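Workshop exercise sheet. Pairs work together: one partner reads the sequence aloud, the other fills in the structure field after running the prediction. Swap roles for the next sheet.
Pair: D.N. / O.F.
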Amino acid sequence: MVYTEGNGDTRPILLIDTDHRELHVFTTNTGSGGEIRHKTSSLDSISFPAGEGDLFIGQSGDNKINNPTSTKQNVNAASGIVVLASSQTTDYYYHNYIDLGGGSGGGGGPTNQPPVVSAGPDQAVTLPAAATLSGVASDDGLPNPPASLITTWSQQSGPGSVTFANANSANTSASFTQAGTYVLRLTANDGSLTSFDEATITVNDASGGGGGSALTFAAVADTLVKSSSATSNYGADSVLRLRGGSEPLYNSYLQFNVSGLSGAVQSAKLRLYVTDGSDVGGAVYAVSNNGSDNAPWTEGGVTWANAPVISGGPLTTLGAINADQWAEYDVTAAISGNGLFSFGLNTSSSNSAYFSSKEGANPPQLVITVDSGSGGGPTNQPPTVNAGADQTITLPSGATLAGVVND
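Structure field:
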């Protein structure tokens, strides 16, 4: 709701700031004697403040200013906002201007900017340890009067569940129910605008009891290819798809860069999150890192026409798979140590199977379990470094840098 009946506001116009994703509403306020009032809301979370809004156009002694109008509905930093209003008393036209580039103009005041958020560095932990989250959120103090800056941690993906010690504190800890790769999001809201940043947490199994240590790797490339669009690339799609039997056919490809293995490989499982199930889960094959044109295949360049050849016997074939579950393919035979590994998947069923790609909510995983007794201890991992949140300052002030380094 923008206004209630008791406000006396009529003849609204709505402008959309496409650069800052904000809505601007201007109305004639008859209750205050003929003024143009202004309200704003985030386009991503529409909620207008209560009351009459800010005075935008008014003139002492003139109580018949009305009919606000503007030059265009979609505005941006280059155009700014110009609003005209006419007076039935004087036959004058009044105008006011908002500089959407961040400067001041015609009484419009500075433009509220979204909060600046850093979720902190990506990191790896070993169960049962929790991850220490070092988030940072800052704001420009707008809208005025400023609302409190609200921060919230949430889980975006991962094979298990996450418990935050304090989900509303930027600096907190997170514990995990099982090993795997998790994406955690820190969101900040200033009462009008929202922004977020994400951190990837790799959770490894604890070794011991004669078992192995599990390492989880994210795909460095994945895509589907389509027979009826043989030269089209779908690397940016959020899904992988398998379909056989009749045209069009769909195959999918994934690539993983495996490093840090210090023990003998006990098992390797390709895990794909099913977004739409099928009577057949398809077959996975070890394929070349080069396409059929003998050039290395890339997520942004592979097509049906130049994709790696899928041939020979499959590593694994799955039966029926259901939506909203992880499908696991045993690919142990293809993994002997560190290196770059590519997999191709196809199916015999015309009932398509869909999976989340690395651009989706639950990206693919390659989980490798190594013999913890043959590697001489844990593998050294590089330090994780975060330079801190992006920020804006006004000269001659200096910038305060809040870097974080973990090892």
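Discussion prompt: The chain has three domains: 5-98, 116-206, 215-371. What would you look at next?
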